[in-house]
Backbone:
């Protein structure tokens, strides 16, 4: 029998093989435990996110409404979504399907619903939307223009100066037009105080 | 009123109310009864409410489920009943020719 003596300890090949087997079993057990715990955590994470999915879609739909119509509609739609959840207790797939269908339907029509609920809303005005679109175009030209003109051979300083002005006008316009009415009111209140 | 009523959708929703005029209806129940998507149903409800056909009330909080926000229920206005029956009857008569585009239910006279 081969033996290896090192400073008082004696190892045999058979003993080291058994230790290796034990270590391998321990590693496999640990890996199995970690994978089980991880898959459980991932499953819980996924389940929670899926349960919240219809609510997130509903929030998106509410954000597409004019500000003055949001609170009432949010409460009304959330109550109906809660009813769907209550009716499908213990049926997670049905709950997800019905809740998502409900929320997607509202998301698709929320702009039109908003126009009925708040016909005078500033956020729905065509003029405002057109102005926002124009500002985006001007801002886009301001960002992409310099490269194109320099490639075309225009004097660099003139191009950069001109385009900077266009970009400033575009972004300032975007800021002004995309400000919400409550921001405007808040700014007025601050000025008065 | 900004947007015109979609005649077919409004007629279908009104028909549900006319089947039992005294019963208030919730949004999700109406979705199940009409088969409309939530968006189409709430758009129609908003238009009917704005035109004065329907009234909306907030349900008392459910003691069994206090965390749920109170639901809204809709009723057909008593004044709207004869108009609704009349206009639904008119819509159900097959027209001799193609019905003109944009045929709509009109708001109740005197409604806001």
Residues:
């Amino acid at each position: 029998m081969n033996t290896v003596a090192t400073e008082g300890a004696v190892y045999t090949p058979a003993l080291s093989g058994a230790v290796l087997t034990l270590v391998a079993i321990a590693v496999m057990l640990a890996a199995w435990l970690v994978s089980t715990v991880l898959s459980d955590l991932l499953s819980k994470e996924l389940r929670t996110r899926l349960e919240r999915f219809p609510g997130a879609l509903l929030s998106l739909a509410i954000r597409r409404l004019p500000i003055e119509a949001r609170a009432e509609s949010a409460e009304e739609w959330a109550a109906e979504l809660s009813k769907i959840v209550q009716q499908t207790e213990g049926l997670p797939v049905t709950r997800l399907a019905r809740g998502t269908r409900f929320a997607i339907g509202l998301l698709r029509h929320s702009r039109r619903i908003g126009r009925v609920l708040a016909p005078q809303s500033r956020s729905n005005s065509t003029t405002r939307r057109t102005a926002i679109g124009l500002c985006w175009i001007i801002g886009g030209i301001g960002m992409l223009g310099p490269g194109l003109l320099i490639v075309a051979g225009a004097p660099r300083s003139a191009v950069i100066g001109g385009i900077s002005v266009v970009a400033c006008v575009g972004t300032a316009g975007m800021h002004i037009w995309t400000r919400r009415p409550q921001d405007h009111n808040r700014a007025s209140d601050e000025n008065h105080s | 009123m900004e947007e015109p009523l979609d005649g077919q959708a409004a007629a279908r929703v009104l028909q549900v109310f006319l089947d039992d005029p005294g019963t208030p209806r919730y949004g999700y129940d109406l979705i199940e009864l009409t088969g409309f998507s939530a968006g189409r149903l709430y758009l129609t409800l908003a238009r009917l409410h704005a035109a004065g056909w329907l009234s909306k009330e907030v349900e008392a909080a459910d003691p069994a489920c206090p965390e749920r926000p109170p639901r809204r229920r809709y009723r057909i206005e008593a004044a709207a009943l004869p108009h609704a029956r009349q206009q639904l009857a008119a819509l159900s008569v097959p027209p001799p020719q193609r019905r003109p585009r944009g045929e709509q239910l009109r708001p109740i006279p005197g409604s806001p």
